[in-house]
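All the exercises in this workshop are built on plain-text protein records. The record below serves as our worked example for the rest of this section.
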Amino acid sequence: MRRVRLDGYARLVHQTILCHQNPVTGLLPASYDQKDAWVRDNVYSILAVWGLGLAYRKNADRDEDKAKAYELEQSVVKLMRGLLHCMIRQVDKVESFKYSQSTKDSLHAKYNTKTCATVVGDDQWGHLQLDATSVYLLFLAQMTASGLHIIHSLDEVNFIQNLVFYIEAAYKTADFGIWERGDKTNQGISELNASSVGMAKAALEALDELDLFGVKGGPQSVIHVLADEVQHCQSILNSLLPRASTSKEVDASLLSVISFPAFAVEDSHLVELTKQEIITKLQDPNRLYYEPAELKLFENIECEWPLFWTYFILDGVFSGNAEQVQEYREALDAVLIKGKNGVPLLPELYSVPPDKASWIVLDH
């Protein structure tokens, strides 16, 4: 019975994720219309494949199951190495950023799916997103600890060590955040974001003293993290929460910091306070999420992002809150749509109906 369920999940994974994986780079395009590969989106997307591979490995009582586990895990390795190739091409930027802290010296947030090349200029996108780099490093650490062989050479080890230096000052580095638009006015103004600080803290803790070659490694392949930097990140994170940043009093992105995948906050009271702020204040009509000229047009109207319900489901699973899991599973089931062959799909968002708003063209 368990194997039948795993095979069903495997079909879903192939139909929704792996069928879109580039055979050369291993990267995943954002959508049918947007062919670029975002670092953050690729990492989160491949987690389902990694988790399914672990499940097959755990229950592998036949050679066929072992083969399926290996196939899934190699798809994960391929994507993670594809992202590594994208970033390692910008090694000079990583080196420069350690000294300049300039947004123009940051790693890019998205790349060409087919070639791993950059797709927009340094100043044409809010590239500095420390949470994206951190979530890559966090899962690189966890995947390596699970037995995957992602890093193949000492040059790559040295680059990962450099990425540690890149994110370790997250507690004092203003970036563009998970929404890529900067502060609350969406004007591309960088600011210190709790979601970036928290994810960096989690990544640093996961990588500290980790051997990137696994059981075949030695002293040269071990990553080192300064304990003081982790402590600085924790202190600043605790002082920011439950706010998301100076300009944003709350943000759903904090769910990834107080619960899965970062689990970066040790104070249970602060975790619960932040969660309640997200639940209550994001229903407040007096929000400021748009271009200044758009604010009046969108008064009392907000897009809905069902994605964040999955965070509440996962949070409920990890905290043992069955009632919360059930509540958000029912909410999620209500918005799922049927794709090709009846595959259930989760919409990215529900936007404002055209008859509810007037539209104007803004110069950027």
Summary: Residues 63-88 form the longest helix (26 residues). The longest strand covers residues 37-38.
